[in-house]
Amino acid sequence: MRQVAERAGVSVKTVSRVVNGEPSVAPATLRRVLSAAAALDFQPDPHAGNLRRSDRRTRTLGLLISSVDNPFAGAIHRAVEDAAIGRGFAVFASSLDDDPEREEEAVAAFTRRRVDGLILTTSAQEQSYLEPEVRRGTPVVFVDRRPTGIACDAVVSDNAEGAAAATRHLLAHGHRRLAYLGDRPAIQTAGERRRGFLEALGQAGVPVGDAVIVEDLHDETVARKALLRLLDGPEPPTAVFSAQNLITIGALRALRERGRHRDTALIGFDDVALADLMDPGVTVMAQHPDDIGRIAAERVFARLDGDDSPAQRITVDTTLIERGSGEIPAPSNT
Amino acid sequence: MRQVAERAGVSVKTVSRVVNGEPSVAPATLRRVLSAAAALDFQPDPHAGNLRRSDRRTRTLGLLISSVDNPFAGAIHRAVEDAAIGRGFAVFASSLDDDPEREEEAVAAFTRRRVDGLILTTSAQEQSYLEPEVRRGTPVVFVDRRPTGIACDAVVSDNAEGAAAATRHLLAHGHRRLAYLGDRPAIQTAGERRRGFLEALGQAGVPVGDAVIVEDLHDETVARKALLRLLDGPEPPTAVFSAQNLITIGALRALRERGRHRDTALIGFDDVALADLMDPGVTVMAQHPDDIGRIAAERVFARLDGDDSPAQRITVDTTLIERGSGEIPAPSNT
DNA sequence: GCCGCATTTGACAACGATGTCACGATTCGA
DNA sequence: TCGAATCGTGACATCGTTGTCAAATGCGGC
To answer: Which residue has the higher pLDDT, B1 or B267?
Structure first.
């Protein structure tokens, strides 16, 4: 900046004025400064500016998700990015792999860089470690999972109701021997989905004993094996509710291996790529990660704009997408 | 920092020493400073430090890809992130949607933020706009597409050879009436894949006239319609080479709609999610985005560590994954 | 011709940190 | 016992920018 000032024969302050588009600069000076800046391809350092400036904003958001290499998280990321760009914000993303330790590290890495806001899918049991940062005034918005031990905005799917609706759908097609394949129950969303499943059974008057509940399935392989075991058992389920993405894929593999994919109903929670090209198409209870991301970004910006209302919890509905596998009727000979 | 210094009864410089782990600090002082820092939950501002520090590094990388919501780009992103974390770097990501204007804006947004390195999938015709940044010493590494008009490292798939190998695979299964479904030929990778396709035909002595080439297919719907037209035509192809992800999906849809998915061979360039669960499984020439991302990150860090050898072009091989659709033989009655 | 006012400009301190250097207090060897 | 080397510490300038305030300039009105 000093070089620009010298080249244009003005003071650094005047250059600063030009760069920031302040009004009281004579047209002739303006031109001189601009051409000098162009000649040196000068780019102002926003960090140095922020140091002195009053608002002290970095125009940067931190996004913490399961993994950037994951369709659900990717959709959230994209929605956040779209909202951020319009405001001149850049987005830092970090993958957590559902590892609470990694979560704290990643948050620290971002707060050190002075992000203006944080959007995160937490996997920690509780998030009081964020307390200092929140007190400092950084807006924090949780996506997909609600916070514990700290009052922050959260944008989540309606997991319980979505799971219940999926279950009712299976019941409506005559199924009684349902299998629920779920993730680790400690994961908040997993717990809620199981609750929805059980509530739907209860409301329909189906004894819980008729259903099989298998949990702790955190990847595709484990899910596949679990369902294979059920299919090979004495009373295989006539319908399967897979409560998560990877579990759905594992279930698909298992059904196919046993050639049961045309007579066993399946509904997955969360949409799966190319589900419509399978045979039969895979019925899912789809979430709306793009809406979740968009709304989360809106909350962050609202907070940055001074909204200091109490922490909100925003629920995004899920949508049943019928593609065939969920509409397979129960065998009539039961 | 001044507050910490006062609380501990030392000078700011001593606090700085503690924070940076410099050796010459008395244990007693160290403790006092640490406890004062903890009490105020002090976090040093890295930007202020960089202002004064000699190396002037922000420990930040900029990644510019087609979209964060895209499996190929997501895998690259993840690989870059994994490499970055180990070095204490954070990653800014930005989606370009193959829009050259957006590309320049996004690059500017990152260079203003003083990223230490850039990794990008360019969609501009040429990248001389990066010249000033490169001169400033920022390492730039291209992924997936080679640069034009500027000398920078590039990590790309072997598009021509991959396409040729895929084509040879189809020819080896007896096909002669091949269809090539490609993206806009202006896109570098698309051009190379077409070249590979044609070369393979030539080497096999198959007259080019036997093949149908349809291009400008930049999304799923257009690709689907294009293939439907071919299938409904007088001499439908017996094998299809779809030169890109979305085109493969469009092709799958078209084949399925006409019930030709069991007798028309298909090989896609670039892997597709759940391709193995289709019926038949989708044979693809898979790229290795994780390798591409990892190598690109390694190049950036090597440059940052002082490697000033000439710009390299690194080619990552593609891998044929046979899943069924590519092994469908040509009808024998031909 | 003088005064007041608006316009344009620059000097200076400050933001939060670190590099340099110098100072006083120890420790050590001769 | 003394000088030299070592250790721990702080004063100060500095990084690149902006906020504050005052100075210089030009203009119109009396």
So the answer is: B267
